[in-house]
TrEMBL record:
Source species of the chain: Megasphaera hexanoica
Positions of the Sigma-54 factor interaction domain: 260-489
InterPro entries in the record: AAA+_ATPase, AAA_lid_NorR, Homeodomain-like_sf, P-loop_NTPase, PAS, PAS-like_dom_sf, PAS_fold, Sigma_54_int
PANTHER family: C4-DICARBOXYLATE TRANSPORT TRANSCRIPTIONAL REGULATORY PROTEIN DCTD, TRANSCRIPTIONAL REGULATORY PROTEIN
Keyword Transport: no
Protein's name according to its UniProt entry: Sigma 54-interacting transcriptional regulator
UniProt entry tagged with the keyword Nucleotide-binding: yes
N-terminal signal peptide: none
Keywords: ATP-binding, Nucleotide-binding, Transcription, Transcription regulation
A Pfam family of this chain: Sigma54_activat
A single GO molecular function term of this UniProt record: ATP binding
GO BP, one annotated term: regulation of DNA-templated transcription
Domain PAS: residue ranges: 119-172
């Protein structure tokens, strides 16, 4: 075949173009039609002015003189598919060639066009709905689509750039060349951060491949991250609203805690008091034996109160030595005493400002410490050690004790003035033996908790429930909780029976875990104690993990010491 260019006359050119079925329109660099073939003339005879309207409609959407590509236009109430190809001599573009198909040749073509138009409109809607700038290129790097956000980012109009090479706007948009090359030639996803006119833009280029892994397009996403700071502030504001909502939900669902506290008539009175005192700032004194749930009551009061989003601090008064009491509760200034922090330290009262402070085991305070505490409660002011001025604090006080403070007042071991300061509202929690109707609901709650924790499926038998009801529970709720954990961990089978509980009581009530028959060196004696404890626990457990749970030490420590003493797991007899 001869591939050399042919020398065609005007008549030859017209004969060839007239033989083509489709409409051919040639426009110059000013967009003025300079030639159309016989198919275009036929269209003009059927629909006068339609060819010029096609040119006009294309010019409204794209720069038809300088672009190329495939477009759908509506003219003379009909749809046309137009392919734009460059008309050029050498490297100089002289205009465009419009190759136009009348899409209404058949009803099938009309239906297909409607489907295509719907898909195109959906794609356009998706592109325009995005909050980021979007640029779509074909496999040659020609611009096929942009959205309004892209136009706004760069001040460009789509009519001026559609159908043109990305290279014509690359420098203006500062899209990194290596990002485009990676997507176009290596078919790889890429991300790049660019400074553009004082803004930070993140460019993301993603190649679009068809089912045959052929390149169809490149989608470039441009996100202005300089506005993220504003979004972050909005997020924090929304998070505050969400936290407030969560706190309200927590208050509404606080009745789920009732089962932990109890559902007896005595505890319902306690719950009523909690509801009443939660809305005020009066000082509350909570009394009751050890293990009755005083701290649970304190938590309920705090979570229902207006201060629920403020600090909540708990102090065990019995664990603070007298010489440290003042520095821990009131704080100290820099250099107040030897060993003091260089920057000083805020005390518990300062840290709890605007919130709630629990003084647990208040009956353990010495008389000297009671006097210092009374002064702060009366004046609502604290003075750090070494300071020359006082600091006002707004703290709601809740005190708790397992002692009879009034008896201590009568014995001269507790200040009467402090007693009356604390005894504004008194909540007494009765022991478990005085509210036996709470035993089974509490046991069921603890059983559910430990079944979940240890992935067990233990159930209470009616016989065991009857046995639990007649126990005195000197350790109250805490003792019941510990008993349920021990039963879940150590009992074989899923049914918890009375004999399982009795065997645990016998083990606890035995005189000693280890009997020392002779005096021996300390290390030897402690090793023997350790060995016997491990041996006894191994007889009750099926795994070192269960042993670790019972003894409250790491599983690795159990394994190491079992190997040290030559012990192995055994079954309960």
């Amino acid at each position: 075949m001869n591939t050399r260019p042919l020398a065609l006359t005007r008549e030859d050119f017209m004969a060839i173009t007239d033989a083509v079925y489709c409409i051919l329109i040639l426009v110059n660099e000013k967009g003025i039609p300079v030639y159309w073939n016989s198919a275009a003339c036929d269209l003009e005879r059927r629909l006068p002015g339609s060819c010029r309207e096609i040119i006009k409609r294309l010019g409204e959407s794209v720069d038809a003189v300088h672009c190329e590509g495939r477009y759908v236009v509506t003219a003379a109430s009909r749809d046309f598919i137009c392919h734009i190809r460059p008309w050029q001599t050498g490297k100089r573009r002289r205009g465009s060639i419009f190759i136009v198909h009348e899409s209404c040749v058949s009803s099938c073509a009309v239906q297909e066009l409607n489907v295509v138009r719907d898909v195109v409109e959906e794609i356009d809607a998706v592109l325009e709905a995005g909050s980021t700038g979007l640029l779509v290129l074909d496999s040659r790097g020609m611009i096929k689509r942009v959205n309004r956000r892209f136009e706004a980012l760069y001040g460009l109009k789509r009519k001026a750039i559609l159908g043109k090479s990305i290279e014509t706007i690359r420098e203006e948009t500062q899209i990194p060349r290596e990002l485009l090359d990676k997507a176009l030639h290596k078919r790889q996803h890429g991300v790049s951060l660019v400074e553009y006119k004082g803004r930070k833009l993140v460019y993301t280029a993603t190649p679009g491949l068809d089912r045959n892994h052929q390149m169809r397009c490149i989608v470039v996403d441009i996100q202005d991250v300089s506005s993220w700071k504003i979004l972050w502030e909005k997020f924090k504001e929304q998070r505050q609203h969400m936290n407030e909502f969560i706190r309200k939900v927590a208050v509404l669902s606080s009745h789920s805690h009732d089962m932990v506290i109890g559902r007896s008539q005595a505890m319902q009175k306690v719950m009523h008091l909690i509801e009443v005192v939660s809305d005020v700032d009066s000082t509350v004194l909570i009394t009751g034996e050890s293990g009755t749930g005083k701290e649970v009551v304190v938590n309920e009061i705090y979570h229902r109160s207006r201060r629920r989003d403020k600090p909540f601090l708990k102090i065990n008064c019995g664990a603070i030595p007298d010489e440290l009491f003042e520095s821990e509760l009131f704080g100290y200034e820099s250099g107040a005493f030897t060993g003091a922090r260089r920057q000083g330290k805020a005390g518990f009262f300062e840290l709890a400002d605007q919130g709630v402070l629990l003084l647990d085991e208040i009956g353990e305070l010495s008389l000297a410490a009671q006097a210092k505490l009374l002064r702060v409660i009366q004046n609502q002011e604290v003075q750090r050690i070494g300071a020359t001025r006082s600091i006002h604090v707004d703290v709601r006080l809740i005190a708790a004790t397992n002692r009879n403070l009034w008896d201590m007042v009568q014995q001269g071991r507790f200040r009467s003035d402090l007693y009356y300061r604390l005894h504004v509202i008194h909540i007494h929690i009765p022991p478990l033996r005085e509210r036996r109707e709470d035993v089974i609901p509490l046991a069921a709650q603890f059983l559910h908790t430990f079944n979940t924790k240890y992935e067990k499926h233990k159930v209470l038998t009616p016989a065991l429930c009857r046995l639990l009801m007649v126990q005195d529970w000197p350790g109250n709720i805490r003792e019941l909780e510990n008993a349920m954990e021990t039963l879940v961990v150590l009992t074989e089978g899923d049914d918890l029976r009375p004999e399982d509980f009795i065997s645990q009581i016998q083990m606890e009530e035995s005189e000693a875990i280890v009997t020392i028959r002779r005096v021996a060196p300390w290390n030897q004696t402690m090793a023997e104690v350790e060995r016997k404890v491990l041996q006894m626990t191994a007889a009750q457990c099926r795994s070192t993990r269960a042993m670790a749970d019972v003894l409250h030490i790491d599983q690795s420590t159990i394994s190491r010491k079992m190997q040290k003493y030559g012990l192995s797991l055994g079954k309960k007899k």
